[in-house]
Design goal:
Rossmann fold, two-stranded antiparallel ribbon, binds S-adenosylmethionine
């Protein structure tokens, strides 16, 4: 079970259902005993709090990767735009200040290592094997493919790959996360472990 949350999680802006949060926590609790965890797409830190609490229980590390400029759907005029997260002086979205505030309030500053960068740039010289990767970044096909190609190879053998926003039905949501989920399964490198709501969890079979 998730320990008592150090923050009012409903006050953290974000996109994660309670059952998905529980599944993320459970898998991260097991995985982080074997190494660090990395998430792509932290936004204001909702998923980061759950993953971070699991990592902290094992004295492990959560790398929280996000350029904090928002995905396509967060931009002005788009469905999930939040004007409170728009930096007028920069003329762009900036969720990093809100993210830092939430991680501090959750007491996770010694566990969560923010990486404020694009996914591909952060991966370019990455050399640390990961026990778990959670993909919840951009939802264009190009962005999702980049996340999968950059980060799935960084998983340890037996490592966990979790992908958010899987929708079999295109009417229910974008298809890019589901495309990389199917790609991972078709590769023969992963076995399915769980499906919880729109979260898919796979395990890497080969090193
Ligand atoms: C759906 S939100 C993440 C939601 C978050 N996991 C939660 O629990 O609320 C997607 C995030 O991915 C980030 N993002 C999109 N494309 C990215 C990229 N190429 N590199 C890094 N971050 C990216 C956006 O800035 C945004 O904050």
């Amino acid at each position: 079970m998730i320990p008592e949350l150090p923050v009012d999680i409903d006050q953290i802006k974000g996109f994660l259902a309670a059952d998905e949060a529980q599944a993320l926590y459970d898998h991260a609790l097991q995985a982080s005993a074997r190494g660090p965890v990395l998430e792509i797409g932290s936004y204001c830190g909702k998923s980061t709090v759950y993953l971070g609490l699991a990592c902290r229980a094992n004295d492990s590390t959560l790398f929280a990767l996000d350029h904090h400029r928002g995905s396509e759907e967060h931009q002005p005029g788009e469905m999930f735009h939040d004007p409170a997260l728009f930096d007028d002086s920069a003329g762009s979205m900036d969720s990093f200040r809100e993210f830092r505030r939430n991680i501090l309030a959750a007491g996770l500053e010694q566990t969560v290592v923010p990486i404020v960068a694009g996914s591909a740039a952060a991966a370019r010289h990455w050399q640390t094997p990961l026990a778990m990767v959670f993909i919840d970044g951009g939802h264009s096909l190009a962005a999702a493919l980049t996340d999968y190609r950059c980060w799935a190879p960084q998983l340890q053998r037996g490592g966990i790959l979790a992908i958010h926003d899987l929708f079999e039905d295109a009417a229910a949501g974008g298809q890019a996360p589901y495309a990389i989920y199917r790609m991972a399964l078709a590769s023969g490198l992963f076995e399915p472990l769980a499906r919880v709501n729109s979260l898919g969890v796979l395990r890497r079979l080969q090193g």
